[in-house]
Specification:
single chain; mainly beta; Hypothetical upf0131 protein ytfp; 5-stranded antiparallel β-sheet; 3-stranded antiparallel β-sheet; 36% strand
Amino acid sequence: MTETFLFVYGTLKRGHRNHQLLKGWEFVSEAETFDSVRYALYQPQGYGFPYLYEPLAQMANDLCERVKGELYVSKSLSPFTILDYLEGVDSNHYKREEIQVVGKQFDPIFAWTYLATPDTYTEWTELDTELLKTTEKGDYYYEW
C-alpha cells in the first residue's frame, strides 16, 4: 500500500479545532513549504481560519514566505474524503494540490495541501485582508 503525505498549516494542526479530523493520519514532523517564493498565508478579517495561496506574480516578492505547518502520512485508500468536505473542495473554496515541503528530519518531498482557489481569492478583494499574526514568519496561530 502506498503512503500519502499531507501538509497542514491551519486549523488541522495539533492543538487547533479541526485536528480531530485527522483520524487515520500519523504525525511525521513539523515542516514548511520548500519553495519560499510561491506561497502566502492570509487571514481575512473575521474568519477563524487561514488561506494558503499562490499570489499573483507582481505581489510575490512582498507576500511570500516559507509557511510552517505539520506533515502527516496515511496508508488509507481514501484519506481525503472528510478533509475535502471540510475544505469545500466541491464548492471550489479550496483546491487540493501537491506541493514540496521540507523538515529537519527529511529532504524535500511532495505532500498534498489545501490552497485557496482563484474564486476565493477574488472574494478577498471585497474584504479587509491582512497577513496572519505569526509567532515566527509563516507560522499560523489564531486566538478564538
